[in-house]
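hey all, quick one before standup. I had two proteins in the batch that finished overnight and I want to keep them in one place so we stop losing track of which output belongs to which input. First protein below, input sequence then C-alpha cells straight from the run.
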Amino acid sequence: MDIFDVVIRNGRIIDGSGNPWFKGDIGVKGEKICRVGDLGRFQSEREIDAAGLLVCPGFVDVHTHSDSSFLVNPKADSKILQGVTIEIVGNCGDSLAPITELGRSFFYKELEEKGVECDWTTVAEYLKRLEAGGLPVNVGALIGHGTVRSSIMGYEARDPSAEELDAMKSLVEDGMRDGAFGISSGLKYAPGCYAKTEEIVELCKIVGKYGGLYSTHIRNQGESLIESVYEAIEIGRKAGVPVQISHLKVKGRMNWGKATNMLRIINEARRSGLDITFDQYPYNAGSTGASAITPSWAREGGTQSFLQRLKDPEQRRKIEEGIPEQENWTGSEKILVAKFDPDPSYEGKSLKEIGKMRNRSRESVMCDLLLEAEGVLPVIIFFGWEKDILDIMRHHATIVGSDGSSLASYGILGRGKPHPRSYGCFPRFFGRYVLGERLMSMEDGVRRMTSFPSMRFGLKGRGLLREDMFADITILDPDKIIDTATFQDPHQYAKGIGYVLVNGEITVEDGRFTGVLAGKTLKHPVHWK
C-alpha cells in the first residue's frame, strides 16, 4: 500500500477547472499530487482534516512587485498568508533583470538602502540569486521594457537609433532564453512613456518567437483610456503576441462609466482573433510613485534630473501647472501618502491635509515632499467607481492580480502605510465578492485565481488539483475568509486561510506561516514558434 507524505481528507475540492466542487481526499508525495478521490485506506506521514473547508489550488498572483522583497526578507509572508503560491514579478515595465551597468545606475541606491547588493546582470542570474536566498512562494519573471530601455538609452525622451533598438532586442532575447514569461511595459512611467508604439511592437516580436506574452500598464487609464486600450490591441496584432492588460481600471470621476465601452472594445478584439485578457485588484484605489503624476518631460534623465528641475523655480512652476493634467488628478477623490521617510507622521494623511498643515496647494506640497524624500514618495490614489470595478470583475477574461508586493508586518518591509492589497487582495476578492456578493460561482472565482492565470502565463504543472500536478494547495474556511488590512492599518494579515502547501510542503498551518521556504523560481519553456 502506498504511503503518502500528506493526505488532505474530507474537503470540498474545487479543482481550479471551473467544474463543480466534489467531496474527496488528496494524496501528496514529494512535490506532486499523486491521487485525488477517496483515500480512506491509504496511510500518510501527515494528515490534514479539511472537513467543512474548501481545498483549492494555490492562488497565482500574475501581477506583483515583489522583485526585491525576498532579497530583503526571504520570509516575507503577506502573500503566502493569502493563499498565494506563485508570484510573477517584473511588471509595469520595471524588472531587476536583464540589466546593464547603465540601467543599474538608476536603481542601485534604492536596493542599497534595502541592504541588497545587485550582483546579477541576466534573468538567469537574478532567478538564481532569488532561489539561493530561499522563497516562501514560487516566482517567475517578466522582462521590464523600462529596464531594457534604461539599460541601453538611459531616461532619454527620444526614439532609439537602429543600433540601440538592436541592443534592446538582444537583451529581450537573452531574457526569454533564460526563462522569462514575456515582456511588460509601463507606458505611464519614465522611461517607458518616451517609447512609441512601434518600439514596443519590435520588442514584442522577439517575445513572440519564444511563445511569451505582452503585459502592459497602458499609457493612460483616465481621459485617454480608450485610446490606450486600442494601442495595446495594435501592439498585440502587429507583434503577433497575446496581450495581458495590467490592473484594468477606470480612473477619475469624470471618466466613470467608461468600463462598458472599454470591455466592448476588448470583446470585439477577442472576436476578431486577438488573444487579449486582463487582471484586476478588487479596490477603488491604486498606488504609485508621486513622480508618475508629474509631466513626463520633468522625469527625463532619471531621478536626479527630476529633482534638479524641482529646485528650479520656473521649472517647478511648470511642473505644478502640469500635474492636474496627469490622468485627471483633479478627478481623484483623495490621495494619501503611503511612505515618507523624513517624517513618518505624514503617512496615511492626504496631500490635501498636509497642504492645509503647510498652507500650500496639494500640487505644491506634493513637490515639496518629493524633494524632501529625494524623489521617493509612494502615494495611494482613490479613483474608482464601484460599478466600473464590478463590470470588469464579472468579465470572463478577468484574472485576479494584486499589483502589490510580498511584505511582512515587521522589519523594513513593515514600514509605511502601503496599499492593503499586499495583504488582502485574494481573500477580499473571494470573501467579499465571490462568497459575499455572489458575483460569480465559487468555482469560477477559484478558476480566476488558479488555472486561468497558470494557463495564461504558461505555468506548466500548476493551477489544478490533478494527479501529477505540483502540490501547490490552499485550504480555506469559506465562513471566515476575508481581508483585514485597511488603508490606515495595512500591515494586517488576512483571515480564513488555514493551510497552504507549496511544492508539497506545508508552509501555512492553522493560519500561521511555518517559515518553510519551499518555493522555487519558475521558467517559461524555451521554444521557438
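OK second protein, same deal, sequence then C-alpha cells:
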Amino acid sequence: MRVVRPAVAAGGVALGVLAYRVQVDNLHSPSMRALATVAVAWAFLVSGLVAWTRRPQNRMGLLLTAAGFALLLRQFRYSHSSLPFTLFFAVGDLGYALVGHAALAYPAGKVTGRPERTFVRIGYAAVLLLPLAVLFFYDGSKRLLFFDFGPHRSLLLVYGSSTTVEVLQKSLTVVFYGVIAALFVVLLVRKFLLATPRLRRKLAPLMLAAAAIALRAIFESVFNFVSVPVATDYLFWWQVGAFLLLPLALAGGVVRARLRQATVGDLVVELEQTPPQGLRDALARALGDATLEAAFWLPERREFVDAGGRRVDVSPGPGRALTPLEVDGEPLAALIHDPSLLDEPRLIRAVGAAARLALQNARLHAQVSAQLVSVKESRARIVAAADEERRRIERDIHDGAQQRLVALALELRSVQRQLGRQVDPELEALLESAVGQLQSAVEELRELARGVHPAILTEDGLGAALESLADRTPLPVLVEESGLGRMPPEVEATAYFVVCEALANIVKHACASSVRVTAARRNGTLVIEVVDDGVGGARPTGGSGLRGLADRVEALSGRLTIENPASGGTRVLGEIPCGS
C-alpha cells in the first residue's frame, strides 16, 4: 500500500494535466473552465486518497478515488481519435454514478438499504447503456448536441443516424439528469430524515451531495434544452463549487471518527476528575452520542444495573445498539447507544479501553448503590409486612375477642331481664358489675384496636382518621386538610402514626395548650406537620418512638424533621412521596 497510493496520486496528476490539454486544445474550452473541471476531479482523488489512508477498511476512500479518475478520464472522449472517443464516451458518465454511489454509501462505505441498492444498480445501468446506444448510431456527420467530438466515427457504429443520436442524447439527459437525479435527491433526504440524531449530524454532507447533483441536473438541462450561455456562464460555476466541496465533506466525515480516536487521551485526563455518577456523560461526549446509556455487570447478582444500582434490561430497543465491554474475558459493562457507532468499532474500543479503570470504579459504586437499593426495598417490605400484621391484629380483635365480649354482655343483660325483680340484690349487683366490666373491656379493646391500626383509616382515608384522632386527644387539636384523596395504604398509615406519636408525646411531655395538624399534597409529596405551643425539647431519640417513625418514613424515601423553635413549642414535619 505504501507504493500503491503514491502511484495512484502520480497517475491522477498526470491524467489531470492531459485532461486539461484535451479540453483546451480539442474542445476549445476556456482555460479557467478546463482547470475547474480538472480541479473537481482532483478534489475527489485527493479526498479519496486521504480517506483510504486514514480508514483503509472503509470503502469510501476507494469510491471517491475511483470517481476522481472517472471524471478525469471522461475528458478524453473529446479526443480526435476514434478509439479513445469510443471508449471514453461509453464510460464517460460513470464518474457521476460513482459520485452517487459514494454519497449513498456514506459514511460506512457500503449501501445498506434495499431502495438505495436498487437505485445504484439502475444508475450504473443508465450511464453505461444509454451512451452505448448512442455509439451504435454516431457516424461523425453531426455534432453530439453542442459538443464537437470531431469528424471520426464510433467504432461501434451499426447504422448512422444523426436524428437518432440527438434523440438518444436528449433522452440520456432527461433520464439521468432528470428522473435519476430527482430520485437520488429523494433518497438522500429520506436517509437524512430517518436517521437518528447522532447519525443525522454525520449525514450533513449528504445535503451538499443533493445540492451538487441537483445543480448538475439543472446545468445539463439548461445546457441541452434552453440556453448554452446561461449554463456555461452562470450555472457552470455553481455546480463546480458544489462538486469541489462535496468530496471534502464526505472524506471529512469518514476520517472524523479517526480524529475522535486521537482525542481519547483527553478522555483519560477528564475521567481522572470525573465521579462515577458523571461517567456516562463523559462517555457520551467522547462518543458523540447524547443518548448513550451505561449499565454495569454485577457478578454476584448476575444482572446489569445502572449507576444508581437499579436493575436494567440491556436488550436494545428499536433504533438502539448494544456493545458489551469486557475485562479478561469477564463482562464489565454494556453501552446502549446509537446504531451509527457500530460503524466505528475502533472508536468504541478505544473509549472502552481508556475508561476501563473508571468503569471498574463506577461498577463498584453501582454495586454499593444496588445494595443500598436492596436495603431500602427490604425496609419498605418490612414496613408493609408490619402494616399488614397490624391490620390482621385489628381485624382479629374486632371480629374475635371484642365481638365475644359484646355478646357475653348482651347475654348477661338478658339474664337480668329474665330474673326480674325476684332476683337477690347481691346477685343483681354482681351481674351489674360484670356487665360494666365487660363494657369497659370492650372500650379498652376498641382503643387498643385503634392504636394497632384504626379501621377508619382503611375505610375512609387519612383525613377522616386524623379527625377521629383529634377528637380522642385530651387537648384542643385543629386539623387542617383538604383534597387529600386516597393514597397508597403504606403512605396513609405512616402519616397517621407520625401524627399519633407526635400527639402522644405532646400530651405526655409538652405541657401544651393547643396543637395544629396540617396535611397537604404538594408536587407528589404528602406533607404532614404537627405544631404545638408547649415547652419543646423533643428529639428523635431517647425512646420517644420518633426514631422508629423516622426509620419508617425513610423506608418510603421520605424525611422526618423535628424542630424546636426559640419561641417555644415543637414542630414535627413529615414529607412522604405519595405519587401524583
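Flagging for whoever picks this up: The longest helix spans residues 356-419. The chain has three domains: 4-260, 275-379, 461-577.
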